[in-house]
Amino acid sequence: MTNPAPASFWTQANALLRKNLTFQKRNVKTNVQLVLFPVFLCLLLFALQRFIDTQIGGSAFKCGCVCANNTTREHSHCPDSQKVCGVQYSDSLQAAFCAIPNPIEWPPLLQLPAPSSRAVRTPSLPLSDLPDASCRRTDSCPLTLLFTAQNHSFAKNVAANMFGSALSVSDFGSDFLASLAMNVLGSESPPWGNNFIEIAFSSGDPIYYLQKKCTDTEKSGLSFPSLPAADNEIKCAQALNLWRNSSSEINGELYKGYQTGNTDGQVNEIVSAFDFLNSNRNRYNVSIWYNSTYKQGTGFSSNVLLRIPRSINLLSNSYLQFLLGPGTKMLFEFVKEMPKPETSFRLEISSLLGTMFFTWVILQLFPVVLTSLVYEKQQKLRIMMKMHGLGDGPYWMISYGYFLAISIIYMLCFVIFGSLLGLKIFTINDYSIQFVFYFIYINLQIALAFLVASIFSNVKTATVTAYIGVFGTGLLAGFLFQFFVQNTSFPRGWIIVMELYPGFALYRGLYELAQFSFEGSSSETGGMKWQNLSESTNGMKEVLIIMFVEWIMMLFAAFYVDQVLSSGSRKGPLFFLKGFQKRPPFQKLDAQMPVSKVFSQMEKPDVIQEKEKVEQLLLEPTINHAIVCDDLKKVYPGRDGNPDKYAVRGLFLSVPQGECFGMLGPNGAGKTSFINMMIGLTKPTSGMAFVQGLDIRTQMDGIYTTMGVCPQHDLLWESLTGREHLFFYGRLKNLKGSVLTQEVEESLESLNLFHGGVADKQVGKYSGGMKRRLSVAISLIGDPRVVYMDEPSSGLDPASRKNLWNVVKHAKQNRAIILTTHSMEEAEALCDRLGIFVNGNLQCVGNAKELKARYGGTYVFTMTTSSDHEKDVENMVQKLTPNANKIYHLSGTQKFELPKGDVRITDVFQAVDAAKRNFTVSAWGLVDTTLEDVFIKVAREAQAFDTLS
């Protein structure tokens, strides 16, 4: 048949798309598992949400009623007149969500350090006015306050009025809080975020009253009848006002005693410190130090401010008494929150926990895409497709679209199923925003996978690295990046820099969606809308811009790296500028061997003749010669102190159309390196080679459209059938319709892959011989003009090998074939010409008869006798020719080489007949030189020469 025209862009794209769809159909189980992963996570979050909703529906979160005269919480038999409804427990949950029309009036308190943390004398603070550290053993250390001023006497007088000398509490009546305000009370319990409930009166911790000197150390069971759940032990604590000469001294003392900041490893906490500055009778100007580290849980760092007003009142009251006398009082009776209505409580788990989980769900696509790309690279399937005519454009378009379609289906299942389950992060936020966000990110993720795939060549390494990246990204984003986002003091510029990492950009977008869904779950107008993107606190807009720009940049970067680094198309870094350059098809370059030691030897006449033929073809090019190699060399640089490896040492070769050229040689001779250069797997170190007039250095894309390859190792998809392989590669060769079907069927029939359902069996179930026959069929489909077969019959049984030879004989009639083999029988049966390759050099060229005549001009004579007559056999051979050479001797069997020019066959027969009359001859034989003998002889001579060199 005539060779079809090269396949168009859309024909190649159609072939790859059909192959991918078939491959995907075979992996439907894996695809279902992939889609079910986000569904499983959504179900898990849904179940967790239902569980939490059930728990929140319990009494601890409800505002019920109790009977005023009943200590139990049961009120089924309680009269309505005695029911008290509202907050039932002394905890922050009910206080935060129950209706409180009349908040409780709580006595103002000072924040006090625990007895074990109060300031004492230490080696780092050897101040004589501080108490001895022994007081900590009895929990009797006083509470230290520091003060300073420009006017010492003024500050001392004011500070003296701060604390009383005895506890003063009136009868429990209407003026109870007013009488309580005459005392200075404090607590070591950290405050809550509000004053609906004062934790100091419900925690059971003691309440301290501060005095100049304690006489009564404690009063147990002192209750406050106007305060609910207030039945605390009240203790006296001595307040110690200490003078310091300056604010810098106070600063230093506070710093040394701050938690574990001192060198003694002890905590020396000061209650508070005051600097009266330039205050006097006519001017009141005070600075106050307070400890802001007291907090209950996270997110309440400013709660200690609830207990700061008592310090201000205490100081102001002392100043009034200094001016107007001790009878003057400015009472601070109570603190009280504003009333509030009941607020519903719903903990949206998908918004709180979903950010990290959803980040992991979406990032799971990255290892899927990456491993698929690296698998094609590791198995050399990408270069196999490229060698059979698949261009980069169709490959990128179909592969990218293929992964994009899978990602879109994955995300649609994720969002739709999550919405059906009622997860607020999906249902509240605008779906169009979600679509744009997810669409841009999955495109960015695919582009990133193409870029990263150029780094890896092993699937296992890529998989492990990708999953470490997935989980590491989620953890870092959840526990580090989110902290920076929530910290308003952290520079926004650095947030943007971190969002340049795609994983953090994904997390930030999901975080914003989660925040809007969490805040909007309790309101009808909640959720993120397009107008919210303009808000300064919303990072979604910057995330969308960053991801879109990175998507475009990474896509171009991935394509560029692929062109420069991928096998079969390794181009220079400035390959995109070569379109402006013109080069004649047969321009010989003065490429030289790298500076190194090069072996030299006298070239054989047939090799010299081949070289002259190549040089003539370069001067007068002709299309009759499909392959022309001009001084082709390949050198692998030495590593770890080893010398350079010369795989091919200047090869001159021409192969015309219709010829099968056989390359023979021992392992490591350079045969596969030569073929790898010709098919584009590696670039030559120097020299040139032309296939159908196209240069292998710069025009491999054109060569691939007319080339077929049967590689040394089978490069096949395990889940595709033999017929599907041939249909795919046939389409790449621009075969269509009935012509494609006919050629596929003929290929299967000719290579015995048609019967018994073999053609429709997945290749993963093929034997080694069946895979080899399929590889040969792939190399010949589409009538390529040049075919390379690297040991095509390895692993075949004799019948299959014979059948394969018939196929190759028929195929070589209208194309050039280069075939490597270790079988001399195969070489003689198939090859029109042979070349023996040793140590990177072409030692001889010619057909089998010429080589045997040139390098095997001897007969091999063999005779077996008893050991007593071995000498008689030697004498007989010497009489035939004194130039005979004994090459074998074992237990009476001797083998000799007889020069053809010295003996005649009739002389040998006559000598043997004469010898039989004198002694017993068990066996004898005379054979001509075989191709195997020629191969061994040439290889030994070449290796011996190189050793001597």
Automatic annotation (TrEMBL):
<keyword id="KW-0472">Membrane</keyword>
<feature type="transmembrane region" description="Helical">
    <location>
        <begin position="32"/>
        <end position="52"/>
    </location>
</feature>
<keyword id="KW-0547">Nucleotide-binding</keyword>
<dbReference type="InterPro" id="IPR026082">
    <property type="entry name" value="ABCA"/>
</dbReference>
<dbReference type="GO" id="GO:0016887">
    <property type="term" value="F:ATP hydrolysis activity"/>
</dbReference>
<dbReference type="GO" id="GO:0005524">
    <property type="term" value="F:ATP binding"/>
</dbReference>
<feature type="transmembrane region" description="Helical">
    <location>
        <begin position="435"/>
        <end position="456"/>
    </location>
</feature>
<dbReference type="InterPro" id="IPR027417">
    <property type="entry name" value="P-loop_NTPase"/>
</dbReference>
<comment type="similarity">
    <text>Belongs to the ABC transporter superfamily. ABCA family. CPR flippase (TC 3.A.1.211) subfamily.</text>
</comment>
<dbReference type="InterPro" id="IPR003593">
    <property type="entry name" value="AAA+_ATPase"/>
</dbReference>
<feature type="domain" description="ABC transporter">
    <location>
        <begin position="627"/>
        <end position="864"/>
    </location>
</feature>
<keyword id="KW-0812">Transmembrane</keyword>
<keyword id="KW-1133">Transmembrane helix</keyword>
<dbReference type="GO" id="GO:0016020">
    <property type="term" value="C:membrane"/>
</dbReference>
<dbReference type="Pfam" id="PF24526">
    <property type="entry name" value="ABCA12_C"/>
</dbReference>
<feature type="transmembrane region" description="Helical">
    <location>
        <begin position="543"/>
        <end position="561"/>
    </location>
</feature>
<dbReference type="GO" id="GO:0006869">
    <property type="term" value="P:lipid transport"/>
</dbReference>
<feature type="transmembrane region" description="Helical">
    <location>
        <begin position="352"/>
        <end position="375"/>
    </location>
</feature>
<keyword id="KW-0067">ATP-binding</keyword>
<dbReference type="GO" id="GO:0042626">
    <property type="term" value="F:ATPase-coupled transmembrane transporter activity"/>
</dbReference>
<dbReference type="GO" id="GO:0140359">
    <property type="term" value="F:ABC-type transporter activity"/>
</dbReference>
<dbReference type="InterPro" id="IPR003439">
    <property type="entry name" value="ABC_transporter-like_ATP-bd"/>
</dbReference>
<dbReference type="GO" id="GO:0005319">
    <property type="term" value="F:lipid transporter activity"/>
</dbReference>
<dbReference type="InterPro" id="IPR013525">
    <property type="entry name" value="ABC2_TM"/>
</dbReference>
<dbReference type="Pfam" id="PF00005">
    <property type="entry name" value="ABC_tran"/>
</dbReference>
<dbReference type="InterPro" id="IPR017871">
    <property type="entry name" value="ABC_transporter-like_CS"/>
</dbReference>
<protein>
    <recommendedName>
        <fullName>ABC transporter domain-containing protein</fullName>
    </recommendedName>
</protein>
<feature type="transmembrane region" description="Helical">
    <location>
        <begin position="395"/>
        <end position="423"/>
    </location>
</feature>
<feature type="transmembrane region" description="Helical">
    <location>
        <begin position="462"/>
        <end position="485"/>
    </location>
</feature>
<dbReference type="Pfam" id="PF12698">
    <property type="entry name" value="ABC2_membrane_3"/>
</dbReference>
